[in-house]
């Protein structure tokens, strides 16, 4: 990746920096909404922290698409399988239903189909 001069970044608004970072392949923090010069969280810091923790488990998971937004998520080492249904918002580990926050299986499913930008749509409102 190319390095960017700090003076160049100072001239850009936060919005343009976010777009620049995404273009360069950087991952932006989950749940951050950029508007002009301000940044605000769509969800509280506790929810964001849980999602970031669940995202760390992705290296141990592999998702297989089963059709109709359903997935089988397999642990690479043990072979244990969890079923994820994005339409019904269910996962067989039941963590998603209990907490309202997508578990690692859901995040893996979204990542496998290139839908990781839609992750916050799957967080429960309550």
UniProtKB/TrEMBL annotation:
SMART domains: ZnF_PMZ. Residues 71-114 form the SWIM-type domain. PANTHER family: MUTATOR TRANSPOSASE MUDRA PROTEIN (PTHR31973:SF187), POLYPROTEIN, PUTATIVE-RELATED (PTHR31973). One of its GO terms (molecular function) is zinc ion binding. The keyword rRNA-binding does not apply. The keyword Zinc applies. This is SWIM-type domain-containing protein. Keywords: Metal-binding, Zinc, Zinc-finger. PROSITE patterns: ZF_SWIM.
């Amino acid at each position: 990746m190319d390095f960017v001069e700090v003076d160049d970044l100072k001239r850009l608004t936060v919005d343009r920096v976010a777009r620049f970072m995404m273009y360069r392949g950087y991952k932006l923090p989950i749940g951050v909404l950029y508007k002009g010069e301000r940044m605000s969280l769509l969800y509280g810091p506790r929810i964001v922290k849980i999602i970031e923790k669940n995202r760390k488990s992705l290296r141990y998971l592999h998702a297989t698409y089963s059709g109709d937004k359903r997935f089988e998520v397999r642990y690479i080492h043990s072979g244990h399988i969890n079923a994820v249904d994005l339409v019904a918002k269910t996962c067989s580990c039941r963590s998603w239903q209990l907490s309202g926050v997508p578990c690692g299986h859901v995040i893996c499913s979204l990542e496998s189909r290139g839908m990781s930008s839609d992750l916050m749509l799957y967080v429960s409102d309550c």
